[in-house]
Amino acid sequence: MASLTRIIEKHIEELLEGTSEESVFLSRKDLAQHFGCVPSQINYVIRSRFTPERGYIVESQRGGHGYIRVIRLCLDMPEERANHIEELVGDTVNEQDIRRILANLQYRGIITARERLLIEVAARFQEEIGRDLLDLSPYKRDSLHAELLKRLLRSLALG
Amino acid sequence: MASLTRIIEKHIEELLEGTSEESVFLSRKDLAQHFGCVPSQINYVIRSRFTPERGYIVESQRGGHGYIRVIRLCLDMPEERANHIEELVGDTVNEQDIRRILANLQYRGIITARERLLIEVAARFQEEIGRDLLDLSPYKRDSLHAELLKRLLRSLALG
DNA sequence: AAAGTTAAGGTCAATATTCGTCAATAATGC
DNA sequence: GCATTATTGACGAATATTGACCTTAACTTT
């Protein structure tokens, strides 16, 4: 359970929590040195963990006095949240995408565990019906999934 | 009688009971090794036993330091409560029935307003698909409604 | 001011480590 | 016997780690 990536991720999260600013400035080289890894490992952590999907924006600059800046987005307004959901879901999602999106939303405190469970059950039921009873194509099923997911999440975001 | 699947199921349940956390992290490879089976057997146990319908959520990650995380949302539902759901919902329900049932559950504090909203939205979406896209008979639609509602409520383990 | 030097960060591909899926078969329960 | 459930294994997909090589910006020297 001791994954370097997760350790570094945690570290950056703590830096963000420990500041009143909306962002932190990191030094790739120093971080890598501190955790005893190659610098590109930091890029990997950033790319895989601090994504817009998870509510972060990242800026950086090369050269002397270079830095990596991680900015925490806050989506307070319902309108923003709704738009974010549209992007997150897109036009088609498979069951794996759904699980990933829901885990992320719960992690960010946007939905509760029970709400997540309800959404999963609804999606599974729809998948089952679409596959076994109606013999829909996988593509059709995925686009129905996307539509269902967007409606469910929108109803929460706006409410 | 002591099928491998049941033994592994039991093992995971015991892990869940033996922790104060709401979830356990499993290693598919180690588990398989421990029980002397192929790794995909673990997937079978998870898929057939630890479903959202039974109140579990499962997350997993591949690759280095990968894991399977089983989250338990609720305690086992007593038999009588399950029966109560069956009675409450029956074999067919129309949208009006659904609204009535949900209003009642919310009034009794068994579900939140947001959960109610999710269930209603899911039911409406299903109705819409069944009617407009698939041209199902009203009876068929109502029995699908009943099935969906029962699954959703059962997953929340309410009575 | 231009050119060179130094000090950042970025990209990409190779490799290793897990887990997931699917379909064939076997076993079990009715 | 037939239908459902369980077991297995081959193959595929995702994630993590590392290192070689590239790009950019500031500083230094001429």
Question: How do the strands and helices of this protein lay out in sequence?
Answer:
Two copies of one chain form a homodimer.
Chain A: H1 4-17, E1 23-26, H2 28-35, H3 39-49, E2 56-61, E3 67-72, H4 78-89, H5 95-107, H6 113-133, H7 138-158
The first copy, chain A, binds a DNA duplex (30 and 30 nucleotides) through helix 3.
Walk me through the structure.
The structure is a homodimer of 159-residue chains. Chain A has 159 residues and is mostly helical. Chain A has 2 domains: 4-72, Transcriptional regulator CtsR, winged HTH domain (Phenylalanyl-tRNA Synthetase, Chain B, domain 1); 78-158. The first copy, chain A, has helices spanning 4-17, 28-35, 39-49, 78-89, 95-107, 113-133, 138-158, and strands at residues 23-26, 56-61, 67-72. In chain A, strands 1-3-2 form a 3-stranded antiparallel β-sheet. The model of chain A has no long low-confidence stretch (mean pLDDT 90). At the A-B interface, helix 6 and helix 7 of A face strand 2, helix 6 and helix 7 of B.
